[in-house]
């Protein structure tokens, strides 16, 4: 009948959605994204293409290559921290690594740094620290009081 909607089981709907996303990432603008892409990652990539977001490369001491984290143009330090958390959660999920990271511990133990300056104020904008597109931010261990 016309106008009648059919209900799909959750697994089938999810499979259809994932297949659609897989076709979407074949687009030249989105080809850098992984096959198991999330809608959030597609939105971030589109924002990058339109100049509404920047990529901040995060350098960890135990990694040889920096992690490319996408944040909006006027992002704060807190926004960057949340983007790092989301990036790592997706990375761990895809690679089957550590299931849970205590971010409270991470942020209590480490500072983010840029150009030798600690990013201590979560409310301060990244551009106030001089962070631009493709700049590299690192981690430094906090000193005990």
* CATH fold group: Ubiquitin-like (UB roll)
Distance between the termini: 72 Å
Summing up helix and strand content along with how strands pair, one would put the structural category as: alpha+beta
Q: Identify low-pLDDT runs.
A: none
CATH class: Alpha Beta
Q: Could you spell the SSE succession in H and E letters?
A: HHEEHHEEE
Could you tell me the radius of gyration in angstroms?
18 Å
Q: Assess the beta-strand content as a share of residues.
A: 15-25%
Q: Strands of the largest sheet, in order across it?
A: 2-1-5-3-4
CATH superfamily: Phosphatidylinositol 3-kinase Catalytic Subunit, Chain A, domain 1
- What oligomeric assembly is this protein in? single chain
Q: Report the biggest beta sheet as strand number plus sense, adding barrel if it closes.
A: 5 strands, mixed
Number of E-state strands: 5
Mean pLDDT: 87
Number of domains: 1
Q: At CATH's second level, what is the architecture?
A: Roll
Helix content: 25-40%
Shape: globular
Could you characterize what this model shows?
The protein is built from 4 helices and 5 strands, in the order ααββααβββ. With 145 residues, it is of the alpha+beta class. 36% of the residues lie in helices and 18% in strands. The protein has a 5-stranded mixed β-sheet. It has helices at 10-24, 39-49, 77-95, 103-109; strands at residues 53-59, 67-72, 110-114, 117-118, 136-141. The radius of gyration is 18 Å and the shape is globular. The N and C termini lie far apart (72 Å). The protein has one domain (36-141): Roll (Ubiquitin-like (UB roll)). The mean pLDDT is 87. Residues 55-143 form the SNRNP25 ubiquitin-like domain. It comes from Sphenodon punctatus (Tuatara). This is Small nuclear ribonucleoprotein U11/U12 subunit 25. One of its GO terms (biological process) is mRNA splicing, via spliceosome.
């Amino acid at each position: 009948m016309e106008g009648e909607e059919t209900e799909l089981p959750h697994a089938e709907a999810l499979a259809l959605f994932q297949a659609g996303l897989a076709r979407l990432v074949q687009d030249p603008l989105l080809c850098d994204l992984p096959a198991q892409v999330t809608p959030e990652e597609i939105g971030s990539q589109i924002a990058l293409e339109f100049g509404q977001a920047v990529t901040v490369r995060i350098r960890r001491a135990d990694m040889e290559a920096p992690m490319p984290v996408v944040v909006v143009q006027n992002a704060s330090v807190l926004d960057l921290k949340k983007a790092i958390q989301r990036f790592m959660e997706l990375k761990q999920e895809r690679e089957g690594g550590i299931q849970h990271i205590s971010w409270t511990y991470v942020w209590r133990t480490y500072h983010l740094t840029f150009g030798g300056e600690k990013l201590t104020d979560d409310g301060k904008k990244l551009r106030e620290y001089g962070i631009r597109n493709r700049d590299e931010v690192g981690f430094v261990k906090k000193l005990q009081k």
